[in-house]
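Usage example:
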Amino acid sequence: MVTKTEESQLSRLESQVDNGGGGAWDFLCLVRKLKVRRSDKVLKHGLSILNDPKKRSALGPHEWTLYEQVAIAAMDCQSLEVAKDCIKILRRRFPGSKRVGRLEGMLLEAKGSLPEAEKAYLSFLEENPFDQVVHKRMIAMVKAQGDITRAIGLINKYLETFMADHDAWRELAELYNSLQMYKQAAFCYEELILSQPTNPLYHLTYADVLYTIGGLENLQMAKKYYASTINLTGGKNRRALFGVCLCSSAIAQLSKGRNKEDKDGTHLQFLAVTALEKDYNQRAPDKLQLLSSALKSLRVSS
Amino acid sequence: MAEDLVLDTAIRDWVLIPLSVVMVLIGILRYFVSKLMRSSQVPDAKIVKEGQLIVRARNLRASANFIPAKSFRARRFYYSNEENGLLFVPKGQAQNAQAQMFSDPNMAMDMMKKNLSMIIPQTLTFAWVNFFFSGFVAAKIPFPLTQRFRSMLQNGIDLSTVDVSYVSSRSWYFLNLFGLRGLFSLILGEENATDDTQRMMQMSGFGFDPTRSLGAEKDGLDIIQHDWALPKFEQHAESVLQKLVH
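Running the assembly step on the lines above writes:
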C-alpha cells in the first residue's frame, strides 16, 4: 500500500518529468521502490535515458536494473521488440543468470506462447523451489488462461510454504469471490485482517462477503464490521454507511419477532442515514432524491 | 609518577599510523575474500516454512480480537492440536536441532569458513603486532586509569612505575579492532564481513531458533483469551458518525 506522502511525491515527480523538467531517474527509482504500475511512463522515460549514451553511462551499475524495469514495462505495454532488445542486452551482460531467465519467461508469456512459458517457469521452480516471483508468474498465467480452479490450487500450494504473504491471500480471496465460494473467501479475508488489522478495506470487503453469505448471525457480524470500517475511516467511507443501512434493514426483516436488537441497531442506522444524506447534499444534491427514496424503502421494510 | 613522558613523534609516524592502515587494509581484504567465498545458500524448505509460520502465528496472536470468536478458535486448534497442528513439535525433535546443525555438512562447512575468515587475520595481526611493536610505550590515553589495567595495556613495558595511561601498541591494536567497525560501514556499505562482534552474537543464537520459537508461539497462543473487539467498534462508530453529522 502506498502512503499519502509517497503518492503525492510520485505524482509531483511524474508531472515534473512529463513537463520536461529533469528527475526522470528519481521518478523511475520511486516507481520501482513503491512497485506501482506506471508502465507507459516508465517506458517513455526509461527509454529516453537508455538511448542516450551519456546518461546511460552516468547510471553506472544501476543501468542493468533500469534495463530490467524498462523490459517489464515494455512487456506491459506490448512493445515486444523493445523488451526483446533489453533482454538481449541483459543476457549478453549476465549469461546464465536466473533473473534474466525469468525475464525471458515473461517475454514468452507476453508473446502469448503460454505452454512454453509454463515449461520455462516449471524448470525454474525445479531448480529453485523458493523463487516467489516465478511462483506468482505461474499463477498469474494460469489465471489469465481462465483456469481459475487450477489457479486456486496453485495459490494454495504456494501459501502452504509462504503463508505470510498477504498479497497471495488477497489474490486467493478474489479468486474465491469470482467463483462464489464465499465461505473460503471469508477465511482469506480473516487472514488479511489478522495481518493488517488497521486497514479499513479488508474490514469492508469482509463485511461485504459476510453480508452476501447471509443468515442472521453473519448479518450481525457484517454490521459490526461495517461499523469498524466507519471507525477506521472516520465516517468517510460511503460504502460502509450504505452497508450499515442494508444490514440493519435485513436484520430487522429476519428478526421480525424478536425485539432485542432493535434499539442499538436503529440508532446506528439513523446516524448512517443522516450522514449519507449530508454527504449527498454536499457533493451530489441532484441525486439526493434517489437516495432518500431508496433509504425510505429500506426503512419501510424494516 | 607525576611528570609527563614525552613520546617521540617517530612513534606516531611509524607505529600508530601504519598499524591503523594495515588493519584497514586487512579488513577490506577480508571483505572481498568473504564475498568470493560465499556460497549461494539454497534455503532449507523446512526453515522457510517455519519462518513464515511463525509470522502468521504471531499475527494471529496480535490481532486475535479482530476476528470472530469461532474463526479464532478454529485457527487456534489448527495450529496447536496434538496430531497435526502446525506449531506442535513432539519432544524428541526439539533436541535434534542442534545435532542436526553439526551433522549437516553444508552448514558445518559454512560456519567453518566464516570462523576461519574471522580468526586467521586476527591471529596473524596480533602476532605481528606483538613481534614488531612490543617493548615500548606507544601512546598515552587521555584519561587516568586504575592500576588494574596495567597487565592488559602495558604488556611489553616491564617498568611498574610508569603511569597506566601510557600504553603499549597492543592496546592500540585492540582499540582499532573494535573502533574500525564504523569506518568499515562507511567505506564498504552496510553488510560487511568485518563486523565481528555482530557475528559473534549471531553464532550463539543460531540453530535453536526454529523449534524453540515454534514451541514459544504455541504456548503464547494457548494462553491468549479472545476478547472480540468488534461490538465496541459499533459504539465507536456511532460516536464518530454523531460527530460527523452534528
